[in-house]
């Protein structure tokens, strides 16, 4: 099962830090690809250098027409929104399908038509918070924590310590 994240409505300098965090969280929590409806070379560069150093196959891609991408996506389409069904009430049925997943998160307000284009509108609680938090919690629920033990086989690797830091580089 491949998991792709679609981040809508990136605004260059204003959202760059958040979009970078979306990419970092997506990769670290088990997703395969970040799709952006707005291209940003700086963001691509930052995320690609993390992949080069820390490993894995994570990719970032720009898509021209997100609506046709969502419409034609062959798999489960899941929009994270505070207005949706609580994750506790739908994660079992989402997990039951082995189909690829497209997880959509917004920045600013998302186009209202999106709610009708997806299979699930899922809330991580009914309070406003952040696309970074929503994505992290959702992926952790989807993978049931197993993603945290995944090997990335990168050039850099951390050897866990009770105290202090140990990083293997090379
Ligand atoms: N009112 C917006 C909404 O529709 O969720 C909040 C915008 S928030 C700054 C940006 C993104 O964070 C949203 O598009 C959504 O993907 C995600 N988000 C924020 N709070 C959420 C929640 N409680 N549950 C799921 N997703 C959430």
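^ structure tokens above, recovered residues below v
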């Amino acid at each position: 099962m491949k998991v792709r994240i679609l981040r809508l409505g990136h605004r260059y300098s204003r959202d760059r830090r958040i979009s970078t965090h979306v990419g970092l969280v997506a990769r670290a929590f088990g997703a395969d690809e970040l799709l952006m409806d707005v291209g940003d070379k700086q963001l691509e560069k930052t995320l690609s250098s993390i992949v080069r150093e820390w490993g894995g196959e994570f990719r970032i891609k720009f898509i021209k027409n997100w609506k046709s991408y969502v419409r034609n996506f062959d798999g489960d389409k899941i929009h994270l929104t505070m207005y949706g069904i609580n994750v506790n009430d739908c994660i079992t049925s989402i997990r039951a399908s082995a189909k690829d997943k497209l997880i959509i998160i917004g920045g600013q307000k998302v186009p209202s038509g999106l709610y009708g284009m997806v299979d699930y509108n899922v809330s991580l609680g009914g309070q406003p918070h952040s696309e970074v938090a929503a994505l992290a919690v959702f992926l952790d629920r989807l993978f049931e924590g197993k993603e945290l033990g995944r090997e990335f086989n990168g050039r850099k690797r951390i050897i866990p310590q009770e105290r202090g830091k140990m990083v293997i580089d090379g």
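Helices lie at 12-28, 41-54, 66-72, 87-96, 114-117, 131-143.
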